[in-house]
Amino acid sequence: MWNPFVNFITLCRKKKSMSLEIIYQDEYCILVNKPNNVLVHHAHHSRNKFDEDSLLQLIDKQLGGKYYPIHRLDRKTSGIILLATKTEYVSKFQKLFTDDEIQKIYYGIVRGHAPESKVIDSPVKGRDADVYKEAETHLRLLDKVVLDIPVKPYDTSRYSLIELKPKTGRMHQLRIHMNKISHPLINDAKYGDKNHDLMYDAEFGWVNLFLHAGSLEFKHPFTQENLSLKAPFPKDWLELFEKFQWKKPLT
């Protein structure tokens, strides 16, 4: 039987806020460490508005006030994101991206042994599915492993830790580019390899996308300070580094 009071309590529990890690904050901007599976903001007619808090809602609950995202991170991607404190500051921060004056570094775990280095310049579809746009990603191999765990059709499984520097900011660019070179990101339900994703869940309990926005470097457009800011890895990444005996980046 439907009980409005019980349903209200259930809704409140679902919306229980998590605490966000603030990486940097001043009067012009804030940089936070976005968790996995959190939308930056809800679409106007989103049906999830009342079931889950967006990043903007979480910031509002924690700090109070409105903030304005300068760039995007996918729901499933964790890591550093830059937001302005006022609308009049947005354009100056956005100019850093359009003028290629900000360096973004991501980290990913991919299937197979990736090349030591590679420039991927395959065009990527924009939000309009009929239009392809130029896209460029620079890859660097950081470490690799062979596991004695079979994943069809092989008796063992191989993985790589990679550093990714996108030179453009297309939607799903890194995920598409990794798929394009046959090294899809682990736990990427859209562009990945289901067999490997199932193994990661069964063997380790890791179900989140292994793509993390690790750092941003830029000259602050208002204070002129050179900033080099890093977002610590989530729990499943730390477990993976220990399990695979890999040196942790961002130290």
Describe this protein's structure.
There is one protein chain. The protein contains 6 helices and 12 strands. With 251 residues, it is an alpha+beta fold. A hairpin with a 3-residue loop joins strand 1 (21-25) and strand 2 (29-34). Mean pLDDT is 90; it is low at 4-15.
Brief summary of the model shown:
This protein is of the alpha+beta class. It contains 6 helices and 12 strands.
* H and E string: HEEHEEHEEEEEEHHEEH
Secondary structure class reads alpha+beta
What distance separates the N and C termini? Answer: 54 Å
Segments where pLDDT lies below 50 for 5+ residues? 4-15
Quick one: overall form?
globular
Biggest sheet record: 10 strands, mixed
* Number of E-type strands: 12
Helix residue percentage: 10-25%
How many H/I helices?
Answer: 6
Radius of gyration: 19 Å
What is the strand content?
25-35%
Q: Return the average pLDDT rounded to an integer.
A: 90
List descriptors.
alpha+beta; single chain; 24% helix; 251 residues
Q: What is the element layout, followed by pairings?
A:
Layout: H1 4-14, E1 21-25, E2 29-34, H2 55-63, E3 68-69, E4 78-84, H3 87-98, E5 102-111, E6 117-120, E7 124-125, E8 132-133, E9 137-147, E10 157-166, H4 173-180, H5 194-204, E11 211-219, E12 226-230, H6 235-244
Parallel strand pairs: 4-11
Antiparallel strand pairs: 1-2, 2-4, 3-4, 5-10, 5-11, 6-9, 7-8, 9-10, 11-12
